[in-house]
């Protein structure tokens, strides 16, 4: 990777038809630094870090 982030993005979190599988991933990989986002969210990365943004 580009080494810009120190976490793994989990897209489609709790969004149909991925609700059950994303819940399972969060449970089974709880030792990893996961950043779950749903279909209305994105991640902004800049020189100061990262943040999750949401489309209203």
UniProtKB/TrEMBL annotation:
Homology family: Belongs to the peptidase S51 family.
Q: Give the record's GO biological process terms.
A: proteolysis
**Is Protease one of the keywords?**
yes
**Gene Ontology MF annotations:** serine-type peptidase activity
> Would the keyword Transmembrane turn up in this protein's UniProt record?
no
Official protein name in the record: Peptidase S51
Q: Which domain of life is it from?
A: Bacteria
Keyword entries, A-Z: Hydrolase, Protease, Serine protease
């Amino acid at each position: 990777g580009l080494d810009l982030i120190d976490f793994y993005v989990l897209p489609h979190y709790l969004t149909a038809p991925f609700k059950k599988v994303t819940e399972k991933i969060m449970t089974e990989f709880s030792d990893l630094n996961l950043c779950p986002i749903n279909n209305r969210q994105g991640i902004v990365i800049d020189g100061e870090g990262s943040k999750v943004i949401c489309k209203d």
